[in-house]
């Protein structure tokens, strides 16, 4: 009995020291892993955030470039008829969009959908106003009709998309 008591006097403190050490080491390893994970996330955010912001900048530039005022000034030539202007406007919007397709990787799904809808709505608007014109209309007539239509709208599709993108960038920053 005394031998068992002597063994317990040695074993119980050893077990207490062992479990205490084990718990402390486990917590230290966990804290070390958490710290490394946090540093990795911080490093990734330092790398990715500027790229994301650059993507949003490019998308805002795209939206500004396909806004009707900007588009008409850039694309319209004095010797164009309405059909040529219509084709040039649609081609320019599609070309600009294709040039910025890769930016969707860095944007949220909702923001990219808003951008796609803005592009589609601009094309629909141009098509619908072009269809209202008589054959052989001048480019000036189409330009005037498009600008009047935009003024009637509560908000131009590209402006609404820009506002959404700005709001999302505000959440990132």
Description:
The chain is 83% helix and 0% strand. It is mainly alpha-helical. The chain is rod-shaped. The protein has six helices and no strands. The protein has helices at 2-65, 68-75, 82-99, 109-132, 139-152, 157-172. It starts with a helix and ends with a helix.
In summary, what is this structure?
By secondary structure, this protein is mainly α. The chain has helices at residues 2-65, 68-75, 82-99, 109-132, 139-152, 157-172.
Radius of gyration: 32 Å
Question: For the report, how would you describe the main beta sheet?
Answer: none
Number of domains: 1
The number of helical elements comes to 6
Form type: rod-shaped
Mean pLDDT: 93
Series of H and E elements: HHHHHH
How many β-strand runs?
0
What helical percentage do the residues reach?
A: over 70%
Broad structural category: mainly alpha
- Share of β-strand residues: under 5%
What is the terminal separation in angstroms? 71 Å
Low-confidence stretches: none
Set out the fold topology.
Blueprint: H1 2-65, H2 68-75, H3 82-99, H4 109-132, H5 139-152, H6 157-172
Helix pairs in contact: 1-6, 3-4, 3-5, 4-5, 4-6
For this entry, give a set of tags:
single chain, 173 residues, mainly alpha, 6 helices
